[in-house]
Amino acid sequence: MAFIPAKASAWFEIPVTDMDRARAFYGSVLQNDLILEESGPNPMAMFAAEDRTASGDIYPGEPAAPGNGPTIHLSVAAPIEDAMERVRQNGGQIVSPAISIPAGTFAYCLDPDGNSFGLFV
């Protein structure tokens, strides 16, 4: 019998070129401070989440070309338009309008390094 995990996503990592800038960007956009962790081989800043099975971090690395690579969707408080404005104000780009689907509403964005991500309400 095949192993089927309870959740398809266990952890994600977003490569960034400037940890301080990325922590400020994601902290402001998500209104959720990223927790700096320097005990491992590389520094990382973890997204604060009660349910760690679907959380992740940013780390010093080389991002994919702008708009390429995987896209993760990050939870934000409604209304989504407020989070979209925080993306703009903090040096990111909005790539799509807010899109409503039965599960909620999302918008595609790019962070200052060009990493693709979605906002999800």
From TrEMBL:
Protein name: Glyoxalase
PANTHER family per record: GLYOXALASE-RELATED
Superkingdom of the source species: Bacteria
Domain VOC: from-to ranges: 8-121
CDD domains: SgaA_N_like
Organism: Mesorhizobium wenxiniae
